[in-house]
């Protein structure tokens, strides 16, 4: 029935800040950007390595979502990286704070977390 995840939709509170974060800091590429006048909303389609993965939306005055303490629902986004130390260094160059690197007790792989501009938890998971 299912074949793969098509995309993840994210609603941001400040479109300009989040667009910069996802494109300039994380390096996702813009596939399409649309302003929907009737909703006073932007929709930004973003890709990673040519694959469409994120729809970034802006809406007027969206309510805050509880993220911590951990609440029911989507917990975080996770991106695979080849070298977590290089990835962390690049984030720090953009003044992005990361948690201490941890090791997955079941796989032995290293990972860390940081937040997007709206405090959505994002994980970097090293697969080398």
UniProtKB/TrEMBL annotation:
PROSITE patterns: VOC (PS51819). CDD domains: VOC_Bs_YwkD_like. Signal peptide: none annotated. One of its GO terms (molecular function) is lyase activity. The keyword Signal does not apply. Keywords: Lyase, Metal-binding. It holds the Pfam family Glyoxalase. Residues 4-127 form the VOC domain. This is Lactoylglutathione lyase-like lyase. It comes from Galbibacter orientalis DSM 19592.
């Amino acid at each position: 029935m299912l074949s793969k995840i098509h995309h993840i939709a994210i609603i941001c509170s400040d479109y300009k800040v989040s667009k910069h974060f996802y494109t300039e800091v994380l390096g996702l590429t813009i596939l399409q950007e649309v302003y929907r006048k009737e909703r006073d909303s932007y929709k930004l389609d973003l890709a990673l390595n040519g694959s469409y993965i994120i729809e970034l939306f802006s809406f007027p005055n969206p309510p805050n979502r509880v993220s911590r303490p951990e609440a029911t629902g989507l917990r975080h986004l996770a991106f695979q990286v080849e070298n977590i130390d290089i990835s962390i260094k690049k984030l720090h160059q953009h003044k992005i704070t990361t948690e201490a690197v941890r090791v997955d007790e079941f796989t032995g792989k290293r990972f860390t977390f940081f937040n997007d501009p709206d405090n959505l938890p994002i994980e970097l998971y090293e697969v080398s």
